[in-house]
């Protein structure tokens, strides 16, 4: 029997994840008290309905009952049940935004401050995150992307690496992205903005892309950039990093940075990395 425990930060997307798992054939249970995990697993195993794929959401909503989780996991092992843990995470900024949009109160924010609840929850979940088999950072994922990630893990049998690579194009004149881990300045490349017939287009258009990629320095830079990222990724994964934000900047964030970001995205995606892209200043 395949037994999956879904957990993670409040607002990180556990409800969406469990819906996807139900759609692909899992028998799902939301907000099960951890102490009941061994009994529930045994009940599913003994069921005449032949339940062979089970997913259970266990999270901080269980209050003090959540403290029973590790004891219950030990009991599952002793009973011979193999399990995997999938942990959903997101940045503090994204979680706060989601709670404000839905006008929900964080389950641990006693005084009404969302950030305090998030910090307390991160502390409580630190150990279970370290023991998780799959960590999905949903900060940059749409619901569609999250669905695809879940389907990759449980339908295609791919072991998803616990690192989401977010590629972001931006314009320096609009300010640096606050969440960037790596920033690359491509203002040294010839600027399509000064070509009258290209000025109103963006790096998403073929004419601009062809212009930017036609230069020898562009080709050399892209090759060196890809080599560097390929070198760094295994070390970021080894260090337990779950979100890598690579920011590519030009003056206005519409031409050169968009082109290079798109090329980097396509290259990394072809290597089956978990990659998302956004163009901050390209309207």
TrEMBL record:
Q: Where is the RapZ C-terminal domain?
A: 164-282
Q: Where does the RapZ-like N-terminal domain start and stop, copy by copy?
A: 1-155
Q: Where does GTP bind?
A: 59-62
Which residues are listed for ATP binding in this entry? 8-15
Q: Which UniProt keywords apply?
A: ATP-binding, GTP-binding, Nucleotide-binding
Matching SUPFAM superfamilies:
P-loop containing nucleoside triphosphate hydrolases
What InterPro entries does the database record attribute to this sequence? P-loop_NTPase, RapZ-like, RapZ-like_N, RapZ_C
The molecular function terms in GO held by this entry are: ATP binding; GTP binding
Pfam families from the UniProt entry: PapZ_C, RapZ-like_N
The cross-references to NCBIfam families, in alphabetical order and at most eight, read: PRK05416.1 (NF003828)
- What is the protein name stated in its UniProt record? GlmZ(SRNA)-inactivating NTPase
Q: What is the lineage of its organism?
A: Bacteria, Bacillati, Bacillota, Tissierellia, Tissierellales
